[in-house]
Specification:
Elements lengths: L1 H16 L22 H4 L2 H36 L2 H6 L5 H34 L5 H29 L2 H25 L2 H6 L1 H7 L2 H4 L3 H24 L5
Helix pairs in contact: 3-5, 3-6, 3-7, 5-6, 5-11, 6-7, 6-9, 6-11, 9-11
């Protein structure tokens, strides 16, 4: 078992070492440009690029988005469809308060999921002795949190406005997939307008695993959740729940 563990660690470290610039000063720097941070070559540069391309740009956003979108669609529209929400509406509670409580529950649950990703990444950095600072891992985790939180809140808003869980799932998933496609295609075509419209590009373009916190990028990602939450409150307040 010990030999297997050692071989596994060595294998991962060999994979990391194949990324240019894993050791300080080695490997070419990515070419300068407005969106150099989201190009594939830039993402795969060194140990930060290894974490970005394997975890923060692929596995974690995919799994966390599935969780957040599913919960966002269920937490209002899903409960309305199965009749659970009707019991709460009989109590003297304002509609906006009910929606805001569920928004907070969604954000808290998403935070727990991303915190697990952050802890796993920090553990990986420590075990493999990767040249990535704790601050940069926290920056990447903050961006990931706001990214998937935005997708989940969009799903919640669509469900709150329509009362249909399926519509919430569909719209939340469509926004996430479209964002990912705009980022991927925009990288290949070097189309700035695609990258400008993609929350994925806002997240990855800030290069958090390389450069740490980018407050402009984080503010843009946070705005998606805030606007979606406001739409959910207004839409639910104005809906005729008898239809």
């Amino acid at each position: 078992m010990v030999r297997g563990h050692v071989r596994g660690v060595r294998h991962v470290r060999r994979v990391v070492s194949t990324h240019a610039g894993f050791r300080q000063g080695s490997g070419p720097e990515p070419a300068p440009g407005r969106h150099q941070s989201v190009q594939l070559g830039g993402r795969r540069h060194g140990a930060p690029g290894y974490l970005t391309s394997t975890i923060f740009a692929l596995i974690a956003p995919g799994l966390a988005s599935v969780f957040a979108i599913g919960l966002g669609a269920k937490i209002v529209a899903g409960e309305e469809e199965d009749g659970t929400l009707e019991l709460e509406l009989t109590a003297p509670v304002a509609r906006h308060s009910l929606v805001l409580q569920r928004v907070l529950a969604l954000w808290t649950s998403t935070f727990i999921v991303v915190a697990a990703v952050c802890a796993t990444s920090l553990l990986q950095v420590g075990v493999l002795r990767l040249d990535v600072s704790v601050e940069n891992v926290l920056a990447g985790s903050a961006g990931l949190l706001l990214l998937v939180m935005g997708f989940g809140t969009v799903a919640l808003a669509a469900g709150a406005m329509t009362g249909r869980r399926g519509i919430g799932l569909g719209i939340g998933s469509a926004v996430a997939v479209l964002s990912y496609m705009l980022n991927s295609v925009g990288e290949v075509l070097q189309a700035d307008w695609m990258l400008t419209m993609s929350p994925f590009a806002w997240f990855l373009g800030a290069r958090p695993l390389f450069d740490g916190f980018d407050w402009t990028s984080l503010a843009a990602l946070a705005a998606v959740s805030i606007v979606a939450a406001a739409v959910a409150v207004v839409g639910y307040e104005r809906r005729n729940l008898m239809t």
